[in-house]
Amino acid sequence: MDNKDGGSLKDEDMISSSKNDEELFHIMKTRIIESYRWQEDILKPVSKELDITEEELKEILIKRLDMSSLEAIHPRFESSKHFCIKERIHADLRLCWLSDIMNLLSKEETEKIKNKLAKEILKYDKSYEDAIEDGRRELLEFLKR
User: What is the DSSP secondary-structure string of 22-68?
Assistant: First the structure.
């Protein structure tokens, strides 16, 4: 069935439906992103790290991620904290030199050090700086044995 302009009603309905779906997805994505946990755990720290506003980050996420990706980010973000802290510890204690290049520490010893410090930071709320200071002292004691 055609309308006055020559287009089919089905085409107009599909376009209208598509626009409504896009608006609905935008609203749903915004609700996910604006939850308290998202604000505290993702938006604030990531926008600060990227030196952009939280609104700019929201728009980037809404534009670039689909619903399932948005819903999966928070748990993945939480589980990545341990990995990311360990990578930072690896770099800050120069374990790449001591373990990877000079072989003064085994891979197992390196992992044990990183896991211990990461646990102190994440589980016991020890400041990163204090953990690194303690880690350096313990590392030096270990190397002198």
Answer: HHHHHHHHHHHHTSHHHIIIIIHHHHHHHTS-HHHHHHHHHHH--HH
| The model's pTM | 0.64
**Cα angle for residues 30, 15, 25 (degrees, 5° grid):** 15
Number of domains in the chain: 2
Question: Residue 25 — pLDDT band, cuts 50, 70, 90?
Answer: confident
Residues 58 and 96 both lie in one domain:
no
Containing domain of residue 42, as a range? 1-65
At which of 43, 65, 87 does a domain end? Answer: 65
| Domain-located, residue 70 | no
For 101-132, the pLDDT digits (tens) are 999 999 999 999 999 999 999 999 999 999 99
